[in-house]
Amino acid sequence: MNVNDKGAVSLAPLRSATGAALIGATVLASGATSYNASVVYVAVPAITRHFHASIIAIQWTLTSYLLAVAALLLVAGALADRLGRRRVLVIGLSVMFAASIVCASASSIGVLIAGRAILGVGAALVTPTSLALVNGTLRRADRARGIGIWAALETLASTVGPYAGGWLVDHQSWRWIFLLNLPFILVALIIVQRVPESSRDRRRSPDPVGAPLAILGLGGIIYALTEGPDAGWSAPRILIALVVGVAALLALVPAERRRREPMLKLSLFSSRPFDAINITTVLVYGVLAAATYLITVTLELKLGYSAAQAGAALIPTTAVVFVLSPVSGALVSRVSARWLMTGGIVLIGGSQLWLAYVHHGSHYLSAILPPLLLRGVGLGLMVTPLTAAVLAAVGDADLGEGSAINDAAARVGGLVAVALVPALIGVGAGATLAGALTHGYRHAMIALGGLCLAGAFGALLSGSGKTAATPPVPDIGVPAGNEAASA
Fold first, then answer.
1. 323 Cβ contact partners less than 8 Å away, ≥ 6 residues apart
2. Alpha helices (H) along 172-271
3. From 91's CA, which of 121, 186, 406, 447 has a CA 20 to 30 Å away?
């Protein structure tokens, strides 16, 4: 990319030094965020033993990262547009680098939780910026292919990550899962310097009212859901947190309506299909995140898998998604996106119900692999039509905004569902995770399967059933379903 004699910015071809550096840096950056979202699952037993941590402390280790990403995602997009996408990506990666060191050297579970929260802040800056930088740097003719390469390589990174992290837990220490971040982040920081800064919009600014309300609202609700099973749902601090959280989210609506450039464009929610798709996204991606956590810790704590084996057990799901996603992409232009999406979600829900009957003594090939493959088929059928349906539900001028909102919906769903895990498995005061899983795993997985099937009903309401055209590539934003593999 360079500036010509008239001062106009010319975009870079994919097959150029700039294009190669761009794809390499953004893949490494996005891969680091996906890796950090799920790799801790395989380390939960080891971290619990090391710190003698309670279930609630372990929950905060998981949700502090997810909360920071979900609450700051839309704010980060505005910052990137105002300050420059490359600059914000560099800031986010630098924060992740420092936070990874904090996590790896944590002397207590409290320090680890704080490090994970800081890691989430960095990831929130990286997540919307990576793809926006691809869109803002590549010439239009190369964007679709560039995004395809970016998505494929990012999926590969999120597939290998939990296995690599599990191997480190088994052979070194849980601390090494955070140190594994460092070389990849460092390489991304180095090669992104070869990518020119994309244009900046000085008119865009972070929402000084909406952002704090979103953080307070999500934080209050997650605090109540996380601490409630141990403290008791009627405890004053739980009720206060819940009331404050709900009140903050309710106040967000009128606050955003008064903003000229709101963090959350409420006018998009006047579309019934858009609303239905986002409700579906919250339910399905929430189910995927919570179920992945439950399956992983069950494999380790109840079936005796090592951390590496638990990480490797889920790879077939991603492999099927990787193979089927291009097929479903081709089908979107011929078959209703709504029916593909609904069928995929039904299969995912069925796989969760099947996995509910995994028990001590279950064999991988007969009891675990088949439902995981079914889950992969469902995801492979769902992800591309979901993206197409989101973009078809908004006007051309709102493609980036609509995609970013849908990505935020996926993350909020995952955050809330993971926070609900203790309640779903019936955790009581002083309970251990292994003990709670013995009695609560099946009920939790059945409940998650039911929520997924409810999401299928939402998908049915998302359109008229007419054939959906292949969506155009948005100029900004993050594609819906970006973290399907890591979910």
1. 380
2. 176-179, 181-191, 210-231, 236-257
3. 406
**66, 416 contact by CB (below 8 A):** no
The alpha carbon dihedral of 190, 195, 197, 198 has a sign of negative
- Residue 302 per-residue DSSP state: T
Residue that has been written with the tokens 């680091």 in this structure: 32
State the amino acid at position 88 in one-letter form.
Answer: V
Listed in sequence order, the residues at least 6 apart from 28 whose beta carbon sits closer than 8 Å to its beta carbon are 157, 184, 185, 187, 188
- Assign 475 to helix, strand or coil: coil
448, 287 Cβ separation under 8 angstroms: yes
C-alpha span between 477 and 381 (Å, rounded) = 22
Tokens 């109840």: give the residue. 302
Is the pLDDT reported for residue 484 higher than 60? no
Q: Please give the residue range of the domain that contains residue 85.
A: 9-205
Give the pair of three-digit tokens for residue 45: 């037993």
The answer to the question of residue 2 being in a domain is: no
Q: Is residue 1 part of a domain?
A: no
Beta bridge partners of 138: 12
Average pLDDT in the 418-442 region?
84
The pLDDT, as a whole number, for residue 196 is: 82
The structural domain count of the chain equals: 3
Specify whether 365 is located in the same domain as 278: yes
Residues 280 and 374 in one domain: yes
Cα–Cα distance for residue pair 186/93, rounded to 1 Å: 8
Measured distance CA(329)–CA(468) in Å, rounded: 11
Task: Spell out a b/e string for 27-58, using b for 16 or more CB atoms within 10 Å of the CB, else e.
Answer: bbbbbbbbbbbbbbbbbbbbbbeebebbbbbb
d(CA 369, CA 486): 17
Of 262, 288, 308, the residue at which a domain comes to its end is: 262
In this predicted structure, what is the pLDDT of residue 247? 94
- Are both 343 and 427 inside the same structural domain? yes
Report residue 314 as tokens.
Answer: 């889920």
Higher pLDDT, 200 or 431: 431
Cα separation, 106 vs 123, whole angstroms = 19
Indicate the DSSP class of residue 474: P
- Give the tens place of pLDDT for each residue, 456-473: 888 887 764 444 444 433
d(CA 339, CA 388): 12
Give the length of the chain: 487
Helix (H, G, I), strand (E, B) or coil at 138: strand
Four-point Cα dihedral 268, 273, 278, 281, nearest 10: -160
Helix (H) or strand (E) run with residue 2 in it: strand 2-3
